[in-house]
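Work Package 3 (structural annotation) set out to generate three-dimensional models for the target panel prioritized at the project kickoff. During this period the team completed the workflow that converts sequence records into discrete structure tokens, so that structures can be stored uniformly alongside our sequence database. As a representative example, we reproduce one entry of 231 residues exactly as it appears in the project archive.
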Amino acid sequence: MKTAEHFQSGQVLLIDKPLNWTSFQVVNKLRWEIRHAHNIKKIKVGHAGTLDPLAMGLLIICTGKMTKEIHIYQGQDKEYTGTIVLGSSTPSYDLETEIDETFPTEHISETMIHEATKQFIGEIDQFPPVFSAIKKEGKRLYEFARAGEAVEISSRRIQISTFEITKIDGLNIEFRVVCSKGTYIRSLAHDFGKALDSGGHLSVLRRTKIGEFHVDNALTPEAFIESLTTK
């Protein structure tokens, strides 16, 4: 069992973030539980890369002195699996918002789907979703979006080293992506639909790897909390 000194000197925790939790909620929950379990008045806890509430999977949490190393983990490549739904789009590019437009899909073949992945491999310019936490003029982009205000968004240079289709089930396209820091998989889903002369949005997303860290070695928040009091 880890002691108060372990957490204060610095730990790297691998957490499997559940659906509908924010990354901030995970950090706050773990901080409170560590403090409560070890009677610590104050301890630094932070995460190395946000996951949207609708995304699941690997979240690296650093405690104590290891919070100074967060930038190292943030810069590492990420691996994701998920599902893109073709034929419709949403303003947020995922299920946070309702479908606002539908598109024809009769022309799309399995060959086209596999071929379309190739144009996203390598260094590409990607526009982040307007429903994102990126700051512009002192406000988060999602604040402009929710207020119905138009805002100009600049593209970002990202790198995708792997984009493979793992299953095609009607309009539900399952995939695996390995990409650089700053990549928005929601934007990839949106752009992938456009590349097929249709539309697309993200319905499922799970982060499976950050660098050499794998979600198979991660604990759920509940399992981590239980470990705090288990010898």
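The CA atoms of residues 23 and 51 lie 6 Å apart.
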